[in-house]
């Protein structure tokens, strides 16, 4: 495997210059400070904390998908399946087994992540449109299972009867109001972002990018590309499942819609809108998507028309995404 990774690294670009690295570090630090202060400055501009939590949750799901889509080159229309499995895992645990939201999050993440790990090798047996169609079929299988299994999932009415509980630590109880829950989401978002950053800057991440850039060349070099595609699929599934669990906690509710391919389409829009090949692109896309949806939906039920128009304009004039456009401008 070590020789395969070394071969794959020849298919990717040279590492960035030291000056660019320092700018990235400063940018990441500034982003972290802005996110930490969200509960203090967001109400001053007319926002509310739960909106910020939803932005981070959708950004986390899109970042998980983007590992497969933007960095490995696999187009999935079924990642809402793992998002929904994570949500149902959390909801069922809190409803029937425990009041610990940390344990429920762990179980929900494992349910969605293990499903992605088991189903990924099946999906990656095909490439291109066939891969995308397999992911849709898998996702819809879980969707209809949730719709039909009324006794467990609540069917089309969704799963209710669970709620957030305070996190009890040794000598400390953390309430899970809007602000407390936002910081839980932020911790999960930061941990997953660090994990994805580490993976993408490791030899494994270079292999993912090599698969995206020159799939056939890596096969000729002897790299077992399907194995690495399955690994990317699995990591992506775990991250998306965690986001789904957090989404269930945010709403104290989940439904089959969290498993539907339409939500997978939302994640794709978010990733493409912000910039698929930019690490923070999904976060930028989530900010635009959630803010537009929140504002426009208060005016009209046809908010998806506005999202669609923004998406079309972005693809036409910003094919690298919003962050990709600004990064190219700053580099020129």
UniProtKB/TrEMBL annotation:
The chain crosses the membrane at residues 25-44, 56-81, 101-122, 129-149, 180-200, 228-247, 267-291, 303-326. The keyword Cell membrane applies. The keyword Metal-binding does not apply. Keywords: Cell membrane, Membrane, Transmembrane, Transmembrane helix. It is a multi-pass membrane protein. It is found in: Cell membrane. Signal peptide: none annotated. It comes from the Bacteria. This is Branched-chain amino acid ABC transporter permease. It comes from Acidiphilium iwatense.
